[in-house]
Amino acid sequence: MEQLKEIITPALFTGMIRIATPLALAAIGGTICERSGIVNIALEGLILIGAFVSVVVSYFTGR
């Protein structure tokens, strides 16, 4: 039981929420697309393109 107390901390839960947020937003976007009748299977690709563009923009702007 002591080992679980060392592993399960508030930092673990905040990290889980921080990491799951982009996937949750993509899932919400996919749900909205499906409800409107448009099939969008490129949600994960859009996340990757957005991450790449943000890295390139931050590199060129110096921020």
UniProtKB/TrEMBL annotation:
It is a multi-pass membrane protein. The keyword Aminoacyl-tRNA synthetase does not apply. It is found in: Cell membrane. Keywords: Cell membrane, Membrane, Transmembrane, Transmembrane helix. Pfam families: BPD_transp_2. The keyword Transmembrane helix applies. GO terms for cellular component: plasma membrane. GO terms for molecular function: transmembrane transporter activity. InterPro entries: ABC_transp_permease. The chain crosses the membrane at residues 12-32, 38-60. This is ABC transporter permease. It comes from marine sediment metagenome.
